[in-house]
């Protein structure tokens, strides 16, 4: 049975799927893990864990379906992450994760002053924020010079797995475009003057597109994983972009909305759109550009409330539904891990306004769901103001399993959301990319055949005025509380998490 194997390293787990040539999932496997937060604003993960979990997942999948003939391997992972390794491919320190890690504020300020904000945007597409990879590399050089001196190669989860599987040292263009300001977005190459200035001791990875074949499984990797030697492996890319592929939301005019530990939005177009409050990146495929954004918490916020309350998700969702639109007068800012787009404020913090003794946990949970929905609206409005032509919205990720959350997002934004049949996410998209890369020219699969739209969520137009009012208050609440919140963040910073 011809299959492809897809594996995605996420923030809270690594997931793998075994998929037949027609898109049918025949086996799944998951390994849960946690990030490390050694200090306030630091979010890290052990890079060796990514490979260990890949090995375990591959063995489990192949054991579950012994008749599977793996034609290709797809890889994906959270990002942009900065994992530096030495000449023996040993990580020199834990990987620094994407925009939820906010330690490089001083480096962002310094690079912006040295290079100029306009020039950074012209070359790299985006202003430097906590999402950018370049300042994280500079932070390591500044704060851990002995560690930096041993660093020879740069990896992200997908490229780390590709390296382990094939020996290829490669990074996809999409991921590279988030190592700002070291990538030239219009030229599609590393910007050598800035690379030499800020990452000169690190070899530049070869650049490819996400769906291109990076290499073949080596004998050593075959022995470790059970995947036959010679099996082709794609280059892969960051999970949000692979999720967009998994639901067919990577065409011009598409917006992918990913419900996960964080919330991610990717709008695809043909031209480079620049705005200081969003991320301008290369697309997953040649000839495309993206305007992207992300909330720092979504599933992480609901998970936090679940842990505090001791209730399970079905109970919380039922109570939130009983609470009703507006959460009985509660309004929440979901910035418990700072916020990425569009406010780009690592010192933002969560706020709950309007709380009384009459409110219950269902009201809090409803307010949390509405907070993420208002955050989505804030991002979509900003994208459209920058010129994004959003014609179609596709929802993906674990949060799509709950109808209430989807409905609240549609009600709060006025957006129609298409939900595909399979929302397992990036691991499925990675398997699809592997299938397209290894298929015969006359049998290249289509994602619309693999994963058709299952249902559509339409906004309740009668709730439009309510959510217009809540959104206005949401924006004003951030501005009104920002000064005090920043003082609190300053007090938090520097202590152990």
TrEMBL record:
<comment type="similarity">
    <text>Belongs to the FGGY kinase family.</text>
</comment>
<dbReference type="Pfam" id="PF00370">
    <property type="entry name" value="FGGY_N"/>
</dbReference>
<dbReference type="InterPro" id="IPR050406">
    <property type="entry name" value="FGGY_Carb_Kinase"/>
</dbReference>
<dbReference type="Pfam" id="PF02782">
    <property type="entry name" value="FGGY_C"/>
</dbReference>
<keyword id="KW-0808">Transferase</keyword>
<keyword id="KW-0119">Carbohydrate metabolism</keyword>
<feature type="domain" description="Carbohydrate kinase FGGY N-terminal">
    <location>
        <begin position="4"/>
        <end position="241"/>
    </location>
</feature>
<feature type="domain" description="Carbohydrate kinase FGGY C-terminal">
    <location>
        <begin position="256"/>
        <end position="437"/>
    </location>
</feature>
<dbReference type="InterPro" id="IPR018483">
    <property type="entry name" value="Carb_kinase_FGGY_CS"/>
</dbReference>
<protein>
    <submittedName>
        <fullName>Sugar kinase</fullName>
    </submittedName>
</protein>
<dbReference type="InterPro" id="IPR018485">
    <property type="entry name" value="FGGY_C"/>
</dbReference>
<dbReference type="InterPro" id="IPR018484">
    <property type="entry name" value="FGGY_N"/>
</dbReference>
<keyword id="KW-0859">Xylose metabolism</keyword>
<dbReference type="InterPro" id="IPR043129">
    <property type="entry name" value="ATPase_NBD"/>
</dbReference>
<dbReference type="GO" id="GO:0016301">
    <property type="term" value="F:kinase activity"/>
</dbReference>
<dbReference type="InterPro" id="IPR000577">
    <property type="entry name" value="Carb_kinase_FGGY"/>
</dbReference>
<keyword id="KW-0418">Kinase</keyword>
